[in-house]
């Protein structure tokens, strides 16, 4: 899965991508599923 596809899934809260990857905020240690309704992550957010 390409980084751009992952970022789009996060921005669009794509439930179909849950379980395929997650994203995290390094300084808080919070991990989120793509479907999680949250603030838009910064461009530097790592998507695993």
What is this structure's SSE topology?
Layout: H1 3-11, E1 23-25, E2 30-32, E3 46-47
Antiparallel strand pairs: 1-2, 1-3
Provide a descriptive summary of the structure in words:
The chain is α+β, with helices and mostly antiparallel strands and 48 residues long. It has one domain. The chain contains 1 helix and 3 strands; from the N terminus they run αβββ. Strands 2-1-3 form a 3-stranded antiparallel beta sheet, with helices on one face. A hairpin with a 4-residue loop joins strand 1 and strand 2. The model has no long low-confidence stretch (mean pLDDT 80). This is Ada DNA repair metal-binding domain-containing protein. InterPro entries: Ada-like_dom_sf (IPR035451), Ada_DNA_repair_Zn-bd (IPR004026). It comes from Yanshouia hominis.
How would you classify the helix and strand content by structural class?
A: alpha+beta
Order of strands across the biggest sheet?
2-1-3
Low-confidence region ranges = none
E-strand count = 3
Strand content: 15-25%
Roughly how much helix do the residues carry, as a percent range? Answer: 10-25%
């Amino acid at each position: 899965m390409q980084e751009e596809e992952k970022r789009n899934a996060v921005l669009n809260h794509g439930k179909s991508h849950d379980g395929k990857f997650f994203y995290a905020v390094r300084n808080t240690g919070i991990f989120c599923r793509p479907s999680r309704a949250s603030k838009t992550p910064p461009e530097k957010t790592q998507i695993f």
